[in-house]
Amino acid sequence: MKVELLSHSPISQIIKAIEGWEIRDPTNLLHHFSFTFSIEGISRACSHQLVRHRLASYSQQSQRFVEMGKLKKHVVVPQTVAEEGEANAEFQRLIGEVQKAYRSLVGLGVPTEDARFVLPNATDTNLLLTMDGQFLLHFFGLRCCNRAQWEIQLLADSMLREVLKVAPELFRKAGPYCYQRGRCEEGRFSCGRMEEVKAKYDAMREEVQKEAS
Amino acid sequence: MKLQLIGFTPHLEEIVATAVLTTTTRSTPSKIFRNLTRDSERVKSLIERLSLQHRSVLEHNRVNYLFEASDKEVLDILLWSKFFDLTRLMGELWLMSTDLKEIVRYILSKKGSMRDALLVSMEAFAPTMSRCLREEL
What we know:
Structural class of chain B: alpha+beta
Oligomer: heterodimer
Number of helices of chain A: 9
Distance between the termini of chain A: 26 Å
Structural class of chain A: alpha+beta
Order of helices and strands of chain A: EHEHEHHHEHHHH
Strand content of chain B: 15-25%
Radius of gyration of chain B: 16 Å
Largest sheet of chain A: 4 strands, antiparallel
Helix content of chain B: 40-55%
Number of strands of chain B: 4
Number of helices of chain B: 7
CATH class of chain B: Alpha Beta
Shape of chain B: elongated
CATH architecture of chain B: 2-Layer Sandwich
Strand order of the largest sheet of chain B: 1-2-4-3
Strand order of the largest sheet of chain A: 1-2-4-3
CATH architecture of the largest domain in chain A: 2-Layer Sandwich
Helix content of chain A: 40-55%
Number of strands of chain A: 4
Shape of chain A: globular
Strand content of chain A: 5-15%
C-alpha cells in the first residue's frame, strides 16, 4: 500500500484572506479545505469499505478498461493468510486458478468487463480520493479505531500521517473518536485500550514533527 | 453580488487529468500526476477531450471565494446545490467554497452576474476548461 497527498487547499493563504473577520477557531473552516490522495495497491475488499464514505470523490482504476495482467502479482494477501503455511498454499492455489480462468475467458473473446466477474476481493486497485477536512476528521474517527478492519485502518493511519505533515494545527485532534473526544463510543464493543491508542497517535504526531524538522 | 477568488487547490487541471488516466490505465495516480506536471500539452489535450457530460473527475479540488451577497442570494445557491459551502464572516460577507464540477454545472445552467464572475475566475485555476466552456456557451 502506498498513500501520498498529491494536492490540498492553500490553507494559510485562505485563512490570511479572511483575517480580521470573526473566525475564532480555523478548525470550524475544515469543510472549506480539500485533500486529494493517491492511494495505490489496496485490495478491492478495502476499496469497497472506502466508498461507503459517500461525502468524498473517487476515481478508481477500472477493471473494464484495464485488463488484468498476472493476477498473482496483483493481489493483497492478509497477514493471517501469509503467515499460515496451509492457508497461504490454499490462497495461492485459488489465485492461480482464477488467473487461469480469467485469461481463458479473455482468450475466448469475453470482454474484460465480463471476464472481471471472476476476480477476487484480494485484487489490488489504485484510486484518487478527495475529501474535505471535516469529513476526513469523521473518516479518521471511524477508521483509525481498533475496531476497524486492519487494511482500512492502515490506510486511514497513512492518510492521517500525510495531512499531519501539511496541517498539524488543523488536525491536532484527528485520530479515532476516542482520541478526538476523550471517550470511547463503541459501548460493549470497545477495545478497552484508550490509553494505548492515545499514546500511538501522540507518537505519530511527534514522529511527523521530527521528520519535518 | 461580488465574488473574489481567494484560493484553489494547486495543479487543478493536472489533478483532473490524473483522475482521467487513473481510471483507464494501469499506472498509479502518483506517477501519472508527476508525469503530467511536466507535460502541460498532454494535460491540455486530456482536458479538451473531456466530455462535460461525465463530470466526476472534476470533483478532485476545492475553490474558495469571498462572496458578498444578500441572504436571498445565498439562499438561492444553497437551495440550488448541496455542494456549495458557505460560512458567514460578517453581515453580507461569506466564505464560499465548492468544486470545479459544481462551478461548471452552475455556468451551464444559470445566467447572470454570478455565472459571469465564476467563468472569469476559472481562468485562474482551470484555463483550458474555461476556454472549452466559453466555446460551448
